[in-house]
Automatic annotation (TrEMBL):
This is Transcriptional regulator, BadM/Rrf2 family. PANTHER family: HTH-TYPE TRANSCRIPTIONAL REGULATOR YWGB-RELATED, WINGED HELIX-TURN-HELIX TRANSCRIPTIONAL REGULATOR, RRF2 FAMILY. PROSITE patterns: HTH_RRF2_2 (PS51197). InterPro entries: Tscrpt_reg_Rrf2 (IPR000944), WH-like_DNA-bd_sf (IPR036388), WH_DNA-bd_sf (IPR036390). One of its GO terms (cellular component) is cytosol. The lineage of its organism: Bacteria, Pseudomonadati, Pseudomonadota, Gammaproteobacteria, Oceanospirillales. GO terms for molecular function: DNA-binding transcription factor activity. It comes from the Bacteria.
Amino acid sequence: MRKDSRLSRMLHVLIHMNQLDAPATSEKIASMLNTNPVVVRRTMAGLRDKGYVTSVKGHGGGWSLAMALSDITLLDIHNALGESSVFTIGLSDEHTSCPIEIAVNQAISDVLIEAEALLLERFREVTLDVLAAGFADYPLNQQASSGE
């Protein structure tokens, strides 16, 4: 089953962008994420539409943060990425008239709804500067040797 890693990948990029002295091109970000610049532009456009990043075209252009990391929460970025489900667990729909399937699906659904609400509430409480602070002690020479 494929995982949706867009949130962690964009958090990675935003924290890197905060460390840069110049805008990051789509190509540079794509290199960080081992993906295509078109995917980067499409994803970053959603963040730009919400006001978290800005973009400048042409020579010397690229993507920059539009606000301080302390003003952006995990929930903000999760929502900007399209509010995908945080869980990949699905309910069975092969026997919709079976009372056992109905009961099982209801029980699973209730737990997933409660768990997702708790997770999203926690996302609302964590700002990106907290993540960046945990990164601040990471030696810069190790970043370079790891290819970032």
